[in-house]
Task: inverse folding
């Protein structure tokens, strides 16, 4: 029945090539036209769903206080002294120009720090530095003294060694267009370039969350501009060598180009945004689309070289390969659809688009590609086939050493899988970018010399209007701040209590002994009001205190922490607050915390997705192969490679991030392909040709071995190319997928055949 359908389908395709070609072009062109609606979003928030609890907590805090999106200029003077006239002048210029950055709402630096001193009974508030070039040595010495003894500045805007300083610009994006982030980044770079040009003795490093957002976009666009052409070239070279037919290679190029156009156009029509995580779609689709075509073309060209006519050769190839190609496409799509269980929305888009693309590639493989082979000129000489010699030798080796290979490969798999626990969860979003990316270089410099962008933000709520002035509440905030400063992971703590202590000292004639919290609520409130009334526009206290003055935010700057370390830090800090300041209500948020939690949740959610995909794929294989036993057995060479890949990763890298959690489910659908093709030929030999197990294994090797080798090589190379991405989520995914597919091919050649032969032996023995 199935062969009858395959035969009728093949007859129609090869006899109506132009009809199929024209219809395909119409569908492809119409769908591809949707690409004009494609837009790229660089906001890191796309990695989180709207109901993500950490995102909701973060957005709630952003609504209360000044936004934390920022650009940070880190200024490195050649002479290593921030407090020279030239450097302070540079900081003044940079501070003034930074107000011009689009969407900037606040600029903080050592020069515009609102320094307070007592003048008779009044409080005088002014910039710490004014007209640096006219400053005397004594004035410079005073500026140095104040800055290096001010908790709000040291290790935040100036290093303890005074060798680097920072200018921090708070950015509030309207969120109306996708060009806002590039606008900010480009303007910031322009300012830095102008300063460096006029003051070459100063190096400016640019980091901050706004620059991170921009790096997401730039890295992704760079990948699309470089990796796709490289992959195209790789496919052309590999297929040219292995297929030895210009028309066949041209047909493949047309087909994979059509698949990409269809998928990207479809994204445009559906209004799905391109993100850093989905930028690898063209490379993945290109790789996936080749697999089906190779099986069809290898059989087609083999038939022609054996003396068959073009029409006969393609009919036979379609008849033999239609079902296995359909099954492998379905299982591959299911593997990618398992990404919908991820807690990361862009992975949903990646999985869905690739799944749709894979199924469309299947349709083109059995329609457009055969039509092209009927239309394009093909010259193939009838020759004695030599392609299978290597496969024949391999099959002879496997048959002769089946017991040794069965136990040897099994034990090797178990040994490598035992290293899986060596992996630990790690998602440092700075390390999402490789070391060639400017943002990472600048961020690591800032972290090593000044302050990093890894933060925790705690909002402490007194519960009533004006409650921040309550002495008991202030003492709780102060105790919390001082405890934080004793923690090894903490680089800086920004606390409103430091301002209150400074104001109390000022209002007591700058008596150092009075550097402590006000003793009464009334005094604290008066100091705060007097100070706020003296602050210039844009430098208010809304970054630390809410409008109602009922709660305050503690900003904690941390060293670069791994996921587990970040989560442990959050638990430790929250536990201290719960145990020591029970009367204080608190919330915690930060982008770092969001990434840490989602990385951990993604592992467990994708485990569920992978299990469901496994069950569905198993069911499909049982039905397709018409054997429960063979269908279930086939899972062994498909599950083991994923385990071995993670074992090898544990032996070499040891860090598993957000992207690797989706690899198991994704590759499960891919590696099944080789197994299905091998088993389909094995079962055909057993059922239709009446061959015994060893003969059937030899038949499978000789008929499909070359195709398996070619498709796996293309897949490995494709994902290897993706592994060269500057963006770690794509690079790690590509590298792990390449390893998994390579291991799967080895298992399909050296473990699956001995397993089949051993089972047949045991079956007959019973």
Result:
């Amino acid at each position: 029945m199935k062969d009858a359908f395959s035969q009728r389908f093949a007859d129609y395709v090869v006899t109506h090539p132009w009809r199929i070609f024209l219809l395909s072009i119409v569908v492809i062109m119409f769908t591809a036209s949707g690409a004009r609606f494609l837009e790229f979003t660089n906001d890191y928030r796309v990695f989180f769903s709207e109901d993500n609890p950490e995102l909701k907590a973060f957005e709630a805090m952003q609504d209360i206080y000044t936004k934390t999106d920022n650009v940070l200029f880190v200024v490195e003077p050649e002479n290593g002294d921030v407090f020279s006239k030239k450097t302070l002048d540079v900081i003044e210029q940079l501070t003034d120009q930074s107000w011009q950055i689009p969407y900037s709402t606040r600029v903080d630096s050592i020069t515009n720090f609102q320094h307070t001193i007592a003048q008779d009974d009044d409080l005088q508030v002014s910039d710490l530095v004014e007209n640096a070039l006219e400053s005397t040595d004594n004035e410079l010495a005073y500026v140095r003294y104040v800055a290096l003894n001010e908790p709000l500045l040291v290790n935040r805007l100036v290093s303890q060694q005074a060798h680097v300083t920072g200018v921090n610009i708070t950015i509030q994006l309207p969120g109306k267009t996708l060009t806002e982030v590039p606008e900010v980044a480009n303007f910031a770079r322009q300012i830095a370039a102008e300063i460096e040009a006029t003051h070459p003795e100063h190096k400016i490093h640019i980091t901050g969350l706004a620059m991170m957002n921009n790096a997401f976009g730039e890295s992704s666009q760079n990948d699309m501009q470089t990796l796709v052409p490289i992959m195209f070239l790789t496919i052309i070279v590999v297929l040219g060598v292995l297929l030895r037919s210009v028309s066949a290679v041209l047909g493949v190029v047309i087909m994979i180009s059509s698949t990409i156009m269809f998928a990207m156009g479809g994204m445009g029509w559906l209004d799905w945004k391109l993100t850093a995580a989905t930028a690898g779609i063209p490379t993945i689709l290109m790789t996936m689309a080749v697999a089906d075509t190779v099986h069809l073309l290898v059989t087609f060209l083999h038939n022609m070289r054996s003396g068959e006519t073009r029409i006969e050769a393609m009919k036979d190839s379609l008849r033999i390969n239609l079902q296995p190609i359909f099954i492998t496409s379905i299982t591959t799509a299911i593997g990618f659809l398992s990404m919908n269980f991820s807690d990361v929305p862009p992975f949903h888009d990646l999985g869905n688009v690739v799944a749709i693309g894979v199924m469309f590639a299947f349709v083109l493989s059995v329609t457009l590609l055969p039509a092209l082979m009927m239309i394009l000129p093909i010259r193939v000489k009838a020759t004695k086939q030599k392609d299978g010699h290597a496969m024949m030798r391999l099959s002879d080796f496997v048959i002769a050493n089946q017991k040794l290979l069965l136990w040897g490969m099994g034990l090797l798999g178990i040994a490598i899988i035992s290293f899986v626990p060596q992996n630990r969860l790690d998602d440092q979003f700075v390390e999402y970018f490789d070391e060639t990316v400017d943002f990472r270089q600048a961020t690591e410099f800032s972290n090593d010399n000044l302050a990093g962008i890894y933060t925790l933000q705690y909002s402490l709520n007194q519960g009533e209007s004006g409650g921040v002035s309550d002495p008991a509440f202030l003492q709780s905030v102060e105790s919390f701040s001082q405890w934080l400063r004793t923690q090894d992971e903490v680089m800086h703590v920004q606390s409103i209590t430091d301002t209150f202590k400074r104001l109390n000292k000022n209002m007591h004639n700058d008596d150092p002994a009075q550097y402590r919290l006000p003793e009464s609520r009334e005094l604290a409130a008066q100091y705060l009001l007097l100070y706020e009334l003296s602050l210039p526009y844009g430098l208010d206290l809304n970054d630390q205190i809410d409008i109602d003055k009922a709660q305050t935010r503690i900003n904690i700057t941390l060293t670069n922490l791994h996921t587990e370390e970040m989560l442990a830090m959050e638990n430790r800090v929250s536990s201290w607050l719960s145990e020591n300041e029970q009367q204080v209500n608190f919330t915690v948020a930060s982008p770092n915390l969001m990434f840490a939690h989602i990385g951990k949740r993604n592992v467990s959610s994708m485990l569920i997705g992978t299990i469901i995909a496994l069950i569905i794929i198993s069911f499909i294989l049982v039905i397709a192969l018409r054997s429960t036993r063979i269908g279930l057995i086939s899972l062994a060479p498909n599950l083991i490679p994923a385990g071995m890949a993670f074992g090898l990763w544990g032996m070499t890298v040891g860090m598993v991030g957000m992207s690797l959690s989706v690899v198991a489910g994704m590759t499960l659908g891919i590696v099944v392909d080789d197994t299905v093709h091998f088993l389909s030929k094995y079962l055909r030999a057993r059922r239709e040709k009446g061959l015994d197990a060893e003969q059937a294994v030899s038949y499978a090797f000789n008929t499909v071995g070359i195709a398996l080798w070619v498709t796996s090589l293309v897949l490995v190379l494709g994902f290897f190319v993706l592994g060269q991405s500057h963006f770690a989520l794509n690079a790690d995914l590509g590298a792990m997928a390449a390893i998994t597919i390579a291991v799967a091919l080895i298992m399909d050649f050296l473990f699956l055949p001995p397993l089949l032969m051993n089972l047949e032996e045991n079956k007959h023995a019973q």
The chain is about 60% helix and 10% strand. The two ends are 33 Å apart (CA to CA). The mean pLDDT is 87. Residues 209-243 form the longest helix (35 residues).
